[in-house]
Write a structure and sequence with these properties.
Elements (H helix, E strand, L loop, with lengths): L1 H9 L6 E4 L9 H11 L4 E5 L1 H4 L3 H5 L1 H12 L3 E6 L1 E4 L7 E4 L8 H11 L4 E4 L5 H17 L6
Parallel strand pairs: 1-2, 2-3, 3-6
Antiparallel strand pairs: 4-5
Helix pairs in contact: 2-5, 5-6, 6-7
Amino acid sequence: DSIREIIDSVKPKRTFYTVETMPWMVPDSPEEYLQLIKDVDRKAFGVHLDFVNMINCPKRYLFCDEFIEECFTKLGPYIKSIHGKDVIMENAYTTIIHETMPGKGIINYRKVALLCESLGPDTTLFVEHLPDFESYRKAAAYVREQAALAGVKTD
């Protein structure tokens, strides 16, 4: 109800209200996000895609290419922005999955670039949770490099 109240109160014309997925709460899957979109039932409600936050179990980690593609396929029409991060899983008991900067984990950023391109030129992917400016610079450079290798223009 609160999302509808916010959207109805603000009445956005050129912006969208989005909810970021988190590993510990719903929505934590593309299907749950689609259900939330249906439940909110407002054109100004969109998706902020954080696929890394939804990689919260070994299956999604091991098959992350397929999972990320599923996210884009199911949520594509609603995606307004995307977090660019990476993920690594410790070889430990119990399952421990860490977020890391793009290029330091297993995410295929060439594929991500192509999936972003399929959404159109206004799609925004940005990095987050890095310790300093130099890390942001390196992460952004890596994402741009992978996009270029995939044949995707980023400027």
